[in-house]
Design a protein that fits this description.
With 480 residues, the protein is mainly beta. The chain has three helices and 38 strands. It has three domains: 189 residues, Jelly Rolls (Sandwich), CATH 2.60.120.890; 168 residues, BT2081, beta-jelly-roll domain (Jelly Rolls, Sandwich); 77 residues, Immunoglobulin-like. A hairpin with a 4-residue loop joins strand 7 and strand 8. It starts with 16 loop residues before the first strand and ends with a strand. InterPro entries: Secre_tail.
Length: 480
């Protein structure tokens, strides 16, 4: 992608000093290992994806007795409700009960399936489901739809080999078999689920067939596919349909962070990233130390219709290890055609309001969502090069001494505005709209006055930052 940025005319003026926020370029991504599943010929799915991301616990686990491994499937308490346990040699079914993936078969002469079982359903029901398919299409007869057999499990049983027999011959075209095991009746919504109901399973095998059920002895386990998260950045982790990605569509370097608003369960899930940490209570723990930095900058590229992204800045004052929020500022991110630079001189805001801040956090969202504004499915926000800077690299004392408000007139204005320094200055200036977005940059040399025309710009308050050979000045102008 072609990278477009307003030209920077520096002349003899020094660049501002920048401090890279840790992993603000999103080049470092950390691997997150999740949990293990039995290894076999089939893709697998389990309720661990729900419990792990709910409270960090697992309800499908590997158990061992005398060197023999088996699987335990159990209903456990989640954050709010009992989480039912299930494990599938295959993938979750569609609304019309078609499982994807499965164990390959070649000999369809099986008359049933057997397994070693130990269970206690606690006055509820679990089940075993077996589905035969040709590719991804169930074939043949069954007792629960085409090619599908449903066997309820109730009561309790100590370890015993149990057979589940099929009522009909298996269709000759079948080449795949899915087996699903559950410690609750998820199909018929056996609510409320009973905490503690469990089933332990080992040695799944076909009866009367030379086809083997690979992985059915539960001896070999391996980690499921890991997730990758941006280092030093908090994101909402979903096991599927993630609302963040590592994007190759970067402004600079190899990667950028992509946030997207995704329709999930009839609601739009907004992509979210925090440059900071979350504490155990879910609150923000700021990690960005300000030092003598006074300007936040980042590159963004926003693809959306009738939507806006957001960058929310929260400033904190640290005292004895505690962080107190002292100021907030939100920057609305509008759609654009390529990467755009945002520079927000927060130092001015804090100084004018006599606010002392030592740290900050940054929250990015792919959509703004309030009681009156609905997030839009499909909005995409790309972020890169999040950093802090200090104009001209001046130390804080010098910056404070040289930061002056330039005389501007007419103010308010319908168009042209004149800035008077009182003496000759040489340098450049940046113009920001009231959302904090840079809209212009200009160079000037050996002059007492600078003229800028606001006529082409919409009404609002504009901030001018002047960087010159005597320091840094600013002005705010109202465009009527």
């Amino acid at each position: 992608m072609k990278k477009i940025l307003l030209p920077l005319f520096m002349g003899a003026v020094a660049f501002s000093a920048n401090a890279q926020i840790s992993n603000g370029d999103f080049e470092r991504w950390d691997k997150v290992l999740l949990f293990q599943h039995p290894s076999g010929a089939s893709a697998t799915m389990s309720s661990n994806y729900e419990t792990y991301f709910d409270n960090g616990l697992l309800n499908v686990t590997k158990e061992e007795v005398n060197g023999n491994s088996f699987v335990r499937i159990e209903n456990i308490m989640g954050t709010e409700n009992v989480q039912p346990g299930f494990f599938i040699f295959g993938k979750v079914p569609s609304e019309d009960m078609v499982f994807s993936a499965g164990n390959p078969i070649s000999d369809v002469n099986m008359t049933g399936i057997s397994m070693d079982l130990n269970y206690d359903m606690l006055d509820r029901e679990g089940f075993v489901i077996v589905q035969f398919k040709n590719g991804n299409t169930p074939v043949g007869e069954g007792n629960y739809g085409p090619g599908t057999y449903f066997f309820p499990i109730s009561g309790s049983q100590d370890w015993s080999n149990t057979e589940f027999l099929f009522d009909n011959p298996i269709d000759p075209s079948a080449n795949t078999c899915v087996v699903a095991l559950a410690s609750a009746d998820l199909i018929n919504e056996d609510l409320p689920f009973a905490e503690g109901s469990f089933m332990e399973v080992d040695n799944i095998a076909f009866i009367g067939s030379e086809s083997t059920f690979q992985g059915g002895d539960f001896e070999f386990w391996s980690y499921v596919e890991p997730l990758y998260v941006p280092g030093d950045c908090y994101v909402d982790i979903h096991p599927f349909d993630q609302n963040y990605q590592k994007s190759l569509d970067s402004y600079q370097g190899s990667f950028a962070l992509r946030l997207n608003s995704t329709l999930r369960n009839d609601n739009v899930d907004v992509g979210y990233a925090l440059m900071g940490e979350k504490n155990e209570e879910g609150g923000i723990a700021p990690t960005i130390a300000l030092g003598d930095m006074t300007i936040l900058s980042f590159m963004y590229y926003y693809l959306a219709q009738d939507d806006m992204g957001e960058a929310k800045l929260v400033f904190y004052n640290e005292s004895s290890g505690s962080y107190t929020p002292v100021y907030e500022h939100s920057i609305e991110l509008t759609s654009n055609e390529n990467y755009q630079l945002i520079e927000f001189p927060f130092g001015n805001e804090l100084e004018e309001q006599e606010i002392v801040a030592t740290h900050m956090s940054i929250e990015f969202k792919s959509s703004i969502e309030t009681e009156n504004i609905t997030a839009i499915d499909g909005s995409v926000l790309l972020l890169d090069n999040v950093s802090l800077g200090n104009a001209l690299g001046l130390n804080p004392a010098m910056t404070k001494q040289s930061l002056r408000q330039v005389r501007s007139y007419p103010n308010p204005t319908m168009g042209r505005v004149v800035f008077n320094f009182g003496t000759n200055r040489a340098g450049y200036y940046r113009v920001y709209n009231q959302l904090g977005s840079q809209v212009a940059i200009r160079e000037f040399s050996s002059t007492k006055e600078v003229v800028f025309d606001l006529y082409p710009y919409p009404s609002g308050v504009y901030t001018f930052r002047f960087f010159h050979n005597a320091g840094t000045d600013y002005a705010r102008v109202i465009r009527e």
